[in-house]
């Protein structure tokens, strides 16, 4: 083992469905309004898979872009980790469909199920592999088809969710540069799992089990309660990562939080005493895309010139389970 090696993001890609569902479209579907959704969540629109489309298409597209930008060929990949709770199928996994789609003939592949924190968990797993196998190249994907698990009659959830995919290639950080993944925080708290669930279709209640009401085959959330825990945990993770690395809020160039609610992001920004231009937000365009949310935000931040080589970036996520996580990296 050579733990002197740091891992780094070598390339990033993203892909979202072209179908846009606006707040005004939702007004025609449930008792809601653009005003309510905008004020309570910050969301204006989200991307949704067309009927007959699968999220694997977008996971593959995002992966190809990430590989091209990293200048890594699919054959060089050793591992594909796909963070998702909405794979095309249960068998095969989404990562296997990507493995086939990009012809990564030398790679192992598995899905990682950690809800909205999945991408950070995936980065943490990739980092461990790179530290032990510095020549490995690993594709970490966050991809979700949440629209397929959305109850379009439930206004408390259907206004929040969207679909999309982001991918990064992780490899050894170039020795000459001070770039890479510096630290992680991973956590979980199962004590309040009933606050955010998707019960139907697992091994407890198989598909079409008559004992379970139909609404349980979709994502359900007690939003207000989840909100309280999310704000507390995200602040705690951010402060813990800064403290144990001897850093302060002044050192952060960009905070890239999970995009679940603009009010949660604003709360975090204020608690960390960061100016608006140091917190990346794209929730208005995509809604909450769970494991895809952070890679979509990272991608767009970079495209907009908000991430420069050497910048200190803080990622923080929180999701159902609960799971939570953070990562500190030098871009
Ligand atoms: O990504 C995983 C983690 N997820 C999160 O972190 C999400 C956390 N939660 C939230 O973001 C927010 O709690 C929500 C956006 C889900 C809800 O916002 P809220 O300010 O907490 O609203 P609420 O649930 O307290 O509901 C306020 C009112 C209720 O009406 P009454 O009881 O006050 O008459 C709801 O019935 O708003 C009503 N409401 C709506 N009204 C219009 C709930 N959903 C809607 C809607 N349109 N879509």
Overview of this protein structure:
The protein is α/β, with parallel strands linked by helices and 331 residues long. The protein folds into two domains: 5-176, Thiolase/Chalcone synthase (Peroxisomal Thiolase, Chain A, domain 1, 3-Layer(aba) Sandwich); 180-330, Peroxisomal Thiolase, Chain A, domain 1. 31% of the residues lie in helices and 23% in strands. Strands 1-7-6-4-5 form a five-stranded mixed β-sheet, with helices on both faces. A four-stranded mixed β-sheet has the order 8-13-12-11, sandwiched between helices. It is globular and about 55 Å long. The chain binds oxa(dethia)-CoA. Oxa(dethia)-CoA binds next to α2, α6, α7 and β12.
Rg: 19 Å
If helices are DSSP runs of H or I spanning 4 or more residues, what is the number of helices? 10
User: CATH class of the largest domain, anyone?
Assistant: Alpha Beta
Question: What's the overall geometry?
Answer: globular
Summarize this structure as a short list of keywords or feature phrases.
2 domains; 10 helices; Peroxisomal Thiolase, Chain A, domain 1; 5-stranded mixed sheet; 331 residues; globular; alpha/beta; 4-stranded mixed sheet; binds oxa(dethia)-CoA; single chain
Quick overview of this protein structure:
Helices cover 31% and strands 23% of the residues.
Secondary-structure topology with pairs:
Blueprint: E1 7-15, E2 20-22, H1 23-27, H2 34-41, E3 45-47, H3 55-70, E4 79-83, H4 94-102, E5 108-112, H5 118-132, E6 138-145, H6 155-158, E7 163-172, E8 180-188, E9 196-197, E10 220-221, H7 223-244, E11 254-257, H8 262-271, H9 283-286, H10 293-303, E12 312-319, E13 323-330
Parallel strand pairs: 4-5, 4-6, 11-12
Antiparallel strand pairs: 1-7, 2-3, 6-7, 8-13, 9-10, 12-13
Helix pairs in contact: 3-4, 7-8
């Amino acid at each position: 083992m050579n733990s002197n090696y740091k891992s780094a993001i070598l390339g990033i890609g993203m892909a979202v469905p072209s179908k846009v569902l606006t707040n005004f479209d939702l007004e025609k579907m449930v008792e809601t309004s653009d005003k309510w959704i905008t004020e309570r969540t910050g969301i204006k629109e989200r991307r949704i898979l067309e009927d007959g489309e699968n999220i694997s298409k977008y996971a593959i597209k995002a992966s190809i872009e990430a590989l091209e930008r990293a200048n890594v060929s699919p054959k060089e990949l050793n591992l594909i980790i796909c963070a998702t709770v909405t794979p095309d199928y249960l068998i095969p996994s989404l990562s296997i469909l990507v493995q086939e789609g990009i012809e990564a003939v030398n790679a192992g592949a598995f899905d990682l199920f950690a809800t909205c924190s999945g991408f950070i968990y995936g980065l943490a797993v990739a980092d461990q592999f790179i530290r032990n196998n510095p020549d490995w190249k690993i594709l970490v994907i966050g991809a979700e088809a949440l629209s397929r698990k959305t109850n379009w009659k439930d206004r408390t959830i259907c206004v929040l969710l969207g679909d999309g995919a982001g991918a990064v290639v992780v490899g050894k950080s170039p020795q000459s540069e001070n770039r890479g993944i510096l630290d992680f925080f991973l956590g979980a708290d199962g004590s309040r799992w009933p606050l955010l669930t998707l019960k139907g279709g697992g091994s407890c209640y198989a598909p079409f089990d008559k004992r379970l009401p139909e609404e349980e085959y979709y994502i359900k959330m007690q939003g207000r309660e989840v909100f309280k825990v999310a704000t507390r945990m995200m602040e705690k993770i951010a402060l813990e990562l800064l403290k144990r690395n001897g850093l302060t809020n002044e050192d952060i160039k960009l905070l890239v939080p999970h995009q679940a609610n603009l009010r949660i992001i604003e709360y975090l920004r204020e608690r960390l005493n960061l100016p608006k231009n140091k917190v990346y937000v794209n929730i208005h365009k995509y809604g909450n895309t769970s494991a895809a949310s952070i890679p979509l935000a990272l991608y767009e931040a970079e495209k907009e010139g908000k991430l420069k080589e050497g910048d200190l970036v803080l990622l923080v996520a929180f999701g159902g389970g609960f799971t939570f996580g953070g990562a500190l990296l030098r871009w």
